[in-house]
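Quick one - first record:
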Amino acid sequence: MRFGVISDTHGLLRAEALAALQGSQHILHAGDVGNVAILDRLRAIAPLTAIRGNVDVVGACAQLPDTQLVQLAGHSIYMLHDRQTLDLDPVAAGIAVVVSGHSHHPAIQWHKGVLYFNPGSAGPRRFSMPVSLGFLTITETAIEPRVVELLPS
């Protein structure tokens, strides 16, 4: 199964992101949504799990949870906006993937069998960082992360 992962839209949902996410079985938004209409547009593609980021302080986005634990394809995925605020041990909790955003830097890291995945920022370009999102292809036995650049850096 293929799951879309997006973060740090900051009120901008690019046509390239919408096109890339087509065919996803579920979409995860790791915070800094910036505009609740973005969530509605993502829900039109696939079921959505979204969390609040540090810019989501007013309106409907402020009502999103800080963290979320979701089960996808038999694996536990823990979502939080800023990985630096992780206050649990994913290994002890049986979590397979930690999804975060905040830094705007795409990252794929494995540590003690846990995948730490940041799709980067899909919203307004910051500095010279790429505009990107990610995908998790998950089966019962494997998790394959992938970052996709929407616009070249």
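second record:
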Amino acid sequence: MKLIFATRNQGKVKEMRAMLGGIKIEVIGMEEAGVSEEVIEDRKTFEGNALKKARFVASRTGEWVLAEDSGLCIKALGGAPGVYSARWAGEGASDEEMVRYALEKMRDIPEHKRAAWFKTALAVVAPDGKERIFRGRVDGLVSTAPRGTMRSKLPYDMIFIPKGHTRTFAEMSDAEKNSLSHRGRAFARLKEFFIGDPEVD
């Protein structure tokens, strides 16, 4: 079985191959599948953005397609940046600029009010047009300073401390982070779906 991941980011494709390890699925990126058009993420929810991308690539390929949208939501900021996580600091902002911008927004918020969560929505569109959504969420708080090693395109890992832990995601190994993260939880549900587990909700 072939599964097209609606992204140009080969790092994300590699990560997904690892998360879906152990099942016989060939994972390729959208450009490998011959789709080069940009899909504008203009929906108000993670689910809406993921479905839009998945539907677009599925309409061009007729294959199984997976798309993902995720972001950081900060309680004291009314859930911001949410779906705007990648563009919050302005179009073209570097990872470092995104971290600085977030901490500046949180500058006057005391430690006990820095609650936040990461959320992921995965959308799967089958060749017959059927659609499924798989969600993942992890709660935690925003640190007062960046800590750890920056992962490319994942800037907020440096300021997010998952609940029950004292280290940021950026201070954890890939394996440890994936066992806790929003994305890891959503992919676990996706993997159960492809294996055919009847308990998948």
